[in-house]
Amino acid sequence: LNSCDLTEKSCDIVASALQSSNSPLRDLDLSYNNLGDSGVELLCAGLMSPNCRLQRLDISYNNLGDSGVELLCAGLRSPNCKLQRLGLNSCKLTEKSCNIVASALQSSDSPLRDLDLSYNNLGDSGVELLCAGLMSPNCKLQ
């Protein structure tokens, strides 16, 4: 579903599908859309559902910013989240996002194994924060 001009309303529908007990969805590409914070919040409701089987989510090239990543990381900390690969390429993330992501990586509940943060404005201090998360014994990134 990349480049489909999806918005918050679409995220509500996708979140409902993720929460369905018979959803076969394992891989979802929502890159190049207009999801926004409210859309990400709705997606997180789907990710936190015990029925969600999603393992890969690409939301690159959406204007999420730090607040959107904060919402997303709340979903990653859920014991029900099965997400192993997450694409956040070119999402207007900053150093603040790095602190939030590092915290999620340190969570024992986060199953994340692959994370793409390329083409964001993380800066040196942001990368230092990420490294702290990577050094956690709970971090599963490979």
UniProtKB/TrEMBL annotation:
The record's section on SUPFAM superfamilies has: RNI-like
Domain of life of the native organism: Eukaryota
The record's keywords, sorted A to Z, are:
Leucine-rich repeat, Repeat
Q: What is this protein called?
A: Uncharacterized protein
